């Protein structure tokens, strides 16, 4: 095999006779899918349901942006409140939190550590059913008109004054939380107990480290938002509760309990994405990840520090200024591990043999967009500037940069990178490059204007705005349309590739990692024989010059 | 933990507690319950809650150590126990810091002598 | 750490060994770590309510203390004792499973379930008592014993129902799990080579006891002296 950094021109080296047995064709019938315990099939079940929820959340986004093209909007304020609330609830709890772990994590984690499945395959399947049940409640809430509390369910509006379907939506989120907990639990135990011989912690792919750290956050944080929602539900039913000022309750206490999870939740969303980026950058630079130890440690650092900063969501809602000072300082500190990763990724590319396949395009986009998102977080962590920026579109732009520009872009990178492994087929690369470019352009057109709008003072969650903000809003909405189209394109060509794409062999990208040493698609038990690991991770050879 | 062995009988989780130990723990727990109930009727001011929590922690430690088998568990299990408790403590302490410090008064001071119109330069 | 070597696939297969595990040790280790991880989530779940309790008790100490007047301390104390007994019988059930003693398993599990049902019965009686005495927070709440704390006392009672209610839900789930174990014990499923479910459910049951050990002093014994 050449060590030159070239790409094989044809991907098809799979046998042209009848298809070998793999996890997709091993058994047939709907029962074999709905009652499967194969982590790979469960990953696909999740992929299907998460994609549905993404498009539901995306539909709300389009309606919101449509409404905001004119200063007084298209819908009534009451409807607008429900639109942005449902957009947030569906996207945060039913897309962002589960997406990468439940799909790519489920599929790849066991293979990457040399295991035949996760530690608890039946609990894995149960977690999917729990997710579907939660989603059903959310969809029911939507069908009955949604909630208008914002995805944050702040009291006393959610407990006392809102006339919307708070209980149904909160219950849906509560249920989905258990799906997340079970996934995290499974990953943690799997990484501790199911590694193949020779797969020490120091040889784990960074994707695995990322998912392990994510699992820790899921375990420690999700139960707290669960109880917060239970308490809101109880208060709604009993018409009095611990967040009710009439009996001496404090609405801010809800915010404490809520954000204790919901801030670490954003790290649940981004850490797996960062894991993907480590894998993609390494492969398409043909080089070991620079500073492996630091990236692994930074994942753990983010998991821990992420739990200590939640008050930065509450600087001006009523928490003590002194507590705010502490949270502000810690919020600056939590940016450090993320920055460590960005620098290490850049160093990985330096003097590497970089190629610009579509997964790598997404990785580049990630680094730029996530950095902007992260840096703008620092403005928000600064107490003085937070006073002006809280509750404005600056915040909206910030979190969309890290969530969409970061996480969704990383998800797309990962989907493309591992699609040949999952399906055994390669997708259309020119279309993929085009879609990546369109995502990048559409995304920036949507959200860069929002930084300016926030700086100029446009409040978020308002259904109307002063006419002088219209131009920027229209630009943002135009961008949203482009972005919406850009998200649909990969759906089409990836689905097409699944059925009609050229078949590939084990390792179309010539990447390092146990998942690239098994068949594409893998057999049900992943390995014919449990491997023994003797190499460090990312053991790419020395990069040689490409001649001619 | 024990590594792979061909002897099926060694593939158990090891330690089987003695009945006497379990009963002794049970008796201690019952006694401590009486203690905590009785102690609540003593007038000790702030120390009441301290005493109540000390007894509760003792009871919980006994349940965890003996009944739940932490005594014979791996260091990984113990690490997980401690982490869970630590995270709860973090949540309680940091949230409490808000309520403790809300009432603190902040006296704005001029931040430089010159700004306050002090000595001429 | 699971640096175990792969066992040659034994001709005589352990019926309890699931295929993705290399050996029974790995399977039991995984189950144990998994259950402890789950218990951590329960610590944080109840912990949210305990945090609320800590905050409000410091804010409204006198109101909280006043509620002890109407708490049924004898019943609370009895229930604490009942749960401690159930923990003993559960530990004995695990021990019996480890030793393969079928009859002892069945008796211990039945005893544990009995204590659990007694606990829930006492709880139901207490809740009924509270209902009659208008101590459920809301429009019908009355607190003539200390009218100056009429509002803040409702916070304590809300936490009382939330925490003991959530605890009771966990007990009911536990009874379901114990029924599952009882059936298994009856069918001689558990013995020295395989008693994982008994041990795991035992951990869960002890944890539910641990929660109550904290709830009892915090809800019932706050301030008799005041």
Distance from first to last alpha carbon of chain B? 75 Å
The CATH superfamily of chain C turns out to be: Cytochrome c oxidase, subunit III, four-helix bundle
The number of strands of chain B is: 0
Q: Classify the secondary structure makeup of chain C into a structural class.
A: mainly alpha
Distance between the termini of chain C: 54 Å
**CATH class of chain C, please?**
Mainly Alpha
Helical content of chain B stands at 55-70%
Question: How many strands in all of chain C?
Answer: 0
Tell me the Rg of chain B in angstroms.
Answer: 26 Å
Question: Could you provide a short overview of the structure?
Answer:
Chain A has 548 residues and is mainly α. Helix content of chain A is 65%, strand content 0%. In chain B, helix 1 (19-39) packs antiparallel against helix 2 (47-67).
What features would you describe in this structure?
- Chain A contains 16 helices and no strands.
- Chain A is mainly α and 548 residues long.
- Chain A has one domain: Cytochrome c oxidase-like, subunit I domain (Cytochrome C Oxidase, Chain A).
- In chain A, helix 4 packs parallel to helix 7, helix 5 runs antiparallel to helix 7 and helix 7 runs antiparallel to helix 8.
- Chain B contains 3 helices and no strands.
- With 226 residues, chain C is mainly alpha-helical.
- Helices cover 72% and strands 0% of the residues of chain C.
- Chain C contains 6 helices and no strands.
- At the B-C interface, helix 1, helix 2 and helix 3 of B face helix 1, helix 3 and helix 6 of C.
Set out the fold topology.
The complex is a heterotrimer of chains A (548), B (121) and C (226).
Chain A: H1 30-34, H2 39-67, H3 77-96, H4 99-113, H5 121-143, H6 157-161, H7 166-193, H8 206-238, H9 251-285, H10 292-305, H11 321-349, H12 358-381, H13 383-389, H14 393-423, H15 429-456, H16 470-500
Chain B: H1 19-39, H2 47-67, H3 75-101
Chain C: H1 24-59, H2 61-67, H3 73-99, H4 102-132, H5 150-186, H6 196-220
Helix pairs in contact in C: 1-2, 1-5, 1-6, 2-5, 3-4, 3-6, 4-5, 5-6
